[in-house]
Amino acid sequence: MSDLLSHRLALLAEHHNLSLLSQCLHGIERECLRVDNDGRLAMTPHPRALGSALTHPKITTDYSEALLEFITGTETDPTKTLAELDAIHRYTYSKLGDEYLWSPSMPGELPEEPQIPIAEYGSSNIGRLKYVYRQGLALRYGKTMQCIAGIHYNFSLPEALWATLQADEGDQRSAQDFQSSRYIALIRNFRRYSWLLMYLFGASPALDASFMRGRSHQLEQLDDDTLYLPYATSLRMSDLGYQSNAQAGLTPCYDDLASYTTSLHKAVSTPYPEYAALGTKDADGNWQQLNTNVLQIENEYYSNIRPKRVTGTGERPLHALRARGIQYIEVRCLDINPFLPLGIDLQEARFLDAFLLFCTLQDSPCLVDGECRASNENFLKVVKEGRKPGLELRRGGEAISLQEWAGQLLAEIGTIAALLDRSQGGEAHAQALAAQQAKVADSSLTPSAQVLETLRRNGESFSQFALRQTHLHAEHFRDQPLPTADMTWFDQTAQQSLAQQAAMEAEDTLDFDSFVEDYQRSLTTLTPV
């Protein structure tokens, strides 16, 4: 263990600081496809009974009209976060009729690309902007790739903890700048070590063969309808045979917040020749992408983790980060575990807390070119062959076995888990850590291995397995309806969201072309550093 990590652990273990570790905030966003009884993509509109996808605070859609996204609030106890996520699932199932929520991250057999419905958000300018942005995603990357679902884990540390660390270091920067710099340091360490999460929690080693739609790939045939890689952990996070695009050369700088926002600012304001040739409108004058830049908006950048700040109405993420600094981080690389009704459980959340605190407290020098490349290569190697016996990764320019490095990391993370248990009582974090150590010792315990074992044991294709799990989870949620008070709250929230969308549509006076022009012009107020 590094001297710096030991020092920070000792500091937080002091009696007057220990309670700070129980004040971290957690939030979860879970995506899942609506499907019919046979597992085919639902072609129906977003259910009106669920409210407005544009304005509902808990239930929205991501890329497709059929791709639901559930959003919890933030809680200091992830038990409450998961309880809220559970309630959202139960409410949704009460309104789905004969439709279902697809259990895994990878979709089953999808319709032809033109038939995959893009999410719609009504006739307001902001609703139309969200729709056109998604049209741009279809144009740039295809619709199939946008139908993959995942879990996003949002995490923040209390401001008092940052203040304690800053006072200990004698750092003279503003509290906002110190906090942002430490969140960026967390992100650097996450890039170094996130391959471990892919090994432990990756749950997409196989997919429906139709997903590749005839594109070349390196996947193997498990059966007539299933493609896989024998040692893969998360094909969802691999390249899946996609060719390079404008994002291939986009690697935002994580030295500090200013350089990060500057690199993203450049991407959202620099034209990309291939997109420029397509234009923002088609031959009939209909919008097909918001602009022809490398990124249409900041959120188009596909990263495993993002620095975040709650934005005001109409405020761009880059403006919010520059003005008020980083508020929390969003982990975006987590697969949905198809064996779990919520796709995630408390044990995983407890380990994620310890892992993210380790990334926060461990020394985090800036990533030099070689280390940045090695981190990317380690991540991709683990998602494609993480369970391969004897697999070696690169650390400090030298080869090291995955098992050895994982063991060392888990030992250090174990000190964090122990401190969290001291802060909160019980042994929940130590138990979560022990479960991960068992996976490193025996790869057959990982979700990815369990998926493949289940397919082989039952003689099921990926989609048959996924549909069976989908029906099991539907029964789980439908057998335990929400209490009346909770149903009433969700019903009222749905109606309020519909009224809010209608009001937004009635209040719009600016034509859409001018609205998009103003939106693009807002970037000019963000002067690159």
From TrEMBL:
Keyword terms, alphabetized: ATP-binding, Glutathione biosynthesis, Ligase, Nucleotide-binding
Keyword Zinc: no
GO annotation (BP), single: glutathione biosynthetic process
Enzyme class: ligase
Residue stretches making up the Glutamate--cysteine ligase domain: 10-382
EC number of this enzyme: 6.3.2.2
Catalytic activity field: L-cysteine + L-glutamate + ATP = gamma-L-glutamyl-L-cysteine + ADP + phosphate + H(+)
Functional pathway: Sulfur metabolism; glutathione biosynthesis; glutathione from L-cysteine and L-glutamate: step 1/2
Annotated GO MF terms: ATP binding; glutamate-cysteine ligase activity; metal ion binding
Source taxon at top rank: Bacteria
A GO CC annotation given for this chain: cytosol
Keyword GTP-binding: no
InterPro entries: Gln_synth/guanido_kin_cat_dom (IPR014746), Glu_cys_ligase (IPR007370), Glut_cys_ligase (IPR006334)
NCBIfam families: glu_cys_ligase (TIGR01434)
Family in the record: Belongs to the glutamate--cysteine ligase type 1 family. Type 1 subfamily.
UniProt-listed HAMAP family: Glu_cys_ligase
Protein name per its UniProtKB record: Glutamate--cysteine ligase
Gene: gshA
